[in-house]
Amino acid sequence: MKANSRDAAYNQTTFYEAWRLTIQRYGIYNPYTGRGAIKGLLPHGPHNVRDVLATHILKRTGSYEQASYAIQDTAAMVASHYGRFLQDKAALAAKILNQVWEAA
Predict the structure, then answer these.
(1) How far apart are CA 35 and CA 28, in angstroms?
(2) What is the DSSP letter of 92?
(3) For residue 31, what is the DSSP state?
(4) How many whole angstroms separate alpha carbon 54 and alpha carbon 71?
């Protein structure tokens, strides 16, 4: 279905197709082209944005609180639901400290 400015309405199917194409092109990291945002991200529908956002922030920062702000929920809920994605806290702390010492 080709849409133009006169007929740009989406239905459930066309929105999902547009979403999936966008994620495949820009969301999933492609090591051959260097395009994409998140390594290891798989194709997904729009209903998974909350999960992707929470786990990505949790992996990058190690903070339940920051992930909870991003998805507008509590830190306790993020810890219980997404906590399995958090890397070893000691390794994360060591990485942060190493970055601080390198910058100094």
Answers:
(1) 8
(2) H
(3) T
(4) 7
Strand, coil or helix: what is 38?
Answer: strand
Domain spans in the chain, listed from the N-terminal domain onward: 1-44, 46-104
Residue 20: strand pairing partners: none
Interval 40-96: pLDDT, tens? 777 777 778 888 888 888 888 888 999 999 999 999 999 888 888 776 665 666 677
CA 59, CA 55: separation in Å to the nearest integer? 6
At residue 16 the predicted structure's pLDDT band, cuts being 50, 70 and 90, is confident
pTM of the model: 0.52
pLDDT of residue 90: 58
Contact of 82 with 58, CB cutoff 8 Å: yes
Apex CA 40: angle with CA 78 and CA 77, to 5°?
Answer: 5
Q: Which residue has the tokens 């920062």?
A: 61
